[in-house]
Amino acid sequence: MSSKDDLIARIVQAEWEMFQQVPNAGGLAGCQQNYGTFRIMRTSQAASWSETLLESYLDDLASAQRDGRNLLTEKYARMMASTSPREYAAFASVLPALEPAVLRTIDTIVEIVLAWEADLSNRFPHILQRGRPIHASEDRPGTTSVETYLRGELASYSQQTLTRYLDHVRVQKLAGINGSELTLSHTVRSYGYPSLAAAERHLVDPSGR
Fold first, then answer.
1. Among 3, 14, 20, 156, which has the highest number of CB atoms less than 10 A from its own CB?
2. Residues 6+ apart with CB under 8 A from 89
3. Does the CA dihedral 137-175-178-6 come out positive or negative?
4. What is the pTM assigned to this prediction?
């Protein structure tokens, strides 16, 4: 196992342990009992990151564990500001405050990533239609957009991790690399497709004709 693979495995394990503790009315949700899907989705995202970014995020997870924080609980709680604002208002005050500089960094990252998502939607519409809507304006109870999910996750990161994340996506953008495409490519390969183009063709015509 490479050093990057080891970092990813440790991150996914730490996230899974936190995910099991995210409160849900009526007990564990179905997604909290499906490690296979969780591993694919989280590994696919992490695979598109640099080792420097992975190391910083792993430090965030370790620090949170020591401090008794659950970063995944915080992530999903922050999403509710858009998807369920009334419920969010009841506990918003207990979440760590976000400094203006942090919010500006998040906005810059989100702008880059949403442009990548729009590009993918144009090139692989059938794949993207099976996932989350892109923009927060499309949020509904039970439906969380890429934008809202990303903002919630970024808000759980330390300033160091956010800075490294921004540096990372800027490097990708300057190099003409779509970071979201790297993540999605890893995902479809995990489900047996050799490429995004092959997955798109299958969704258009499952018979392969």
1. 156
2. none
3. negative
4. 0.93
Q: What is the spatial distance between Cα 97 and Cα 27, in angstroms, rounded to a whole number?
A: 28
DSSP H helices, 84-158, are 85-89, 100-123, 125-129, 146-154
Could you tell me the two tokens for 179? 């970071």
d(CA 56, CA 50): 10
CA dihedral 1→40→136→91, nearest 10 degrees, is -80
How far lies 153's CA from each of 67, 113, 128, in Å?
A: 18, 13, 20
Q: 191 in a domain, yes or no?
A: yes
Domain containing 106: what range?
3-204
Question: Count of domains in the chain?
Answer: 1
Q: Is 209 a member of any domain?
A: no
Q: How far apart are CA 174 and CA 171, in angstroms?
A: 5
Category of 101 on φ-ψ map: left (φ > 0), alpha (ψ -120 to 50) or beta: alpha
